[in-house]
Amino acid sequence: MRSGDETMPEAANESVPHHAVVVVGGGQAGLSISYYLKARGLDHVVFEKDVAMGAWSKQRWDNFCLVTPNWQCQLPGHPYEGPEPDGFMKKDEIIAYLDAFKRKVDAPLREGVAVKRVKARAGGGFEVTTSAGTVTADQVVATSGGYHTPIIPRLAERLPASIHQLHSEQYRNAQSLPQGAVLVVGSGQSGAQIAEDLHLAGRTVHLAVGDAPRCARFYRGKDVVTWLAEMGYYDMPVERHPLREGVRDNTNHYVTGRDGGRDIDLRKFATEGMKLYGLLDGLDGTTLTFAPTLKSALAEADRVYNGINAAIDKHIAEKGIAAPPPSVYEPVWEPEADPVALDLAAEGITSIIWCIGFQPDFRWLDAPVFNGAGHPQHYRGVTQVPGVYFLGLPWLHTWGSGRFSGIDRDARYVADRIEELAKGETMPLKAAG
């Protein structure tokens, strides 16, 4: 059989390797489910197209750090045990933490093997075609996350060739960009932090602001994440969230753990020379146009910021907690008008960084488990197709599902369902998320 042959008959073939479980993706989700499969004595293999946890070194800029406190790093059997539980690990520290987890799990890992197709077999189970050949499996877990294809708008094709363009996953540092001003498009966590990184490096920064909300870093004596954890927010399942499954489409709040942690206040950046715009709308020659949304975007981000703090105020009052007095954020800058145009040449812009996210790409999984937008439908990672699971997606179950804080609980739950099916037991699917 040729490597990667997708024409193998579905009938059983003793020459084809078989595993009880195939795990697709060797990031923190893939190694977390491996941890629990090993504990249950379940045969499995983890396929990773690159190197395990490679995204953390290849898709993060040099000054990247966590935006949640280190104490939230709770991978299976591998809690953060460093000297700064309330600090924010930097890129090198995160990689070291993950490398230690990889060694501890010692998963049956096959790096450099890409999964090209998974399809059901007529006799039961699945045929898994990889770049290194074909295997069969009783069950399959997709742990490759939902951030696969970088989003870059088609208008980028019409920009002058002299403009250096890159996606957020390619950005490393200010020194790696050509001399000149930089336009950052998108103000989610990556966009806001990259804009800050460039701003602190002394670069002239233009930022196209989207609809991302923001939150305080510290409030009334504690990190806001600590308050929200005490309030039970991070244990709230998606079905109890006011937005239900719609929360999975939300943009994350922007804040930073840099230099010990602080707010990211775009208004303050504006007072220091950063130039802000609304949503990117079009391109006319060398002039970009923007929707008149800057004022409303800043106001909405501040509304969310103050709303989170007000919820903390209520919690403090109800519990009778001694804490510093409350406060309300007041804007330190207001645009005179919504800017609607930016002449790239006139402003000396030589680089554009696209920070508008990723699209999922599960085309390799041939199973009826997706909605019309191509997103998986599941309940806590369990799909309506027996033996097909997802792990590591944002809000798979709770806020922490795609993060170091919640993957343990999710992996344990999915492993339990895998074991039940392997034993011939069943558990009804409560809902399709």
From TrEMBL:
- Per the record, the domain of life is Bacteria
Q: Does the keyword Oxidoreductase apply?
A: yes
One of the entry's Gene Ontology molecular-function terms is: flavin adenine dinucleotide binding
Sorted UniProt keywords: Oxidoreductase
Coiled-coil residue spans? none
Q: Does the keyword NAD apply?
A: no
PANTHER family per the UniProt record, alphabetical: FLAVIN-BINDING MONOOXYGENASE-LIKE PROTEIN (AFU_ORTHOLOGUE AFUA_4G09220) (PTHR43539), FLAVIN-CONTAINING MONOOXYGENASE (PTHR43539:SF78)
What protein is this chain from? Putative flavoprotein involved in K+ transport
Species name: Azorhizobium caulinodans (strain ATCC 43989 / DSM 5975 / JCM 20966 / LMG 6465 / NBRC 14845 / NCIMB 13405 / ORS 571)
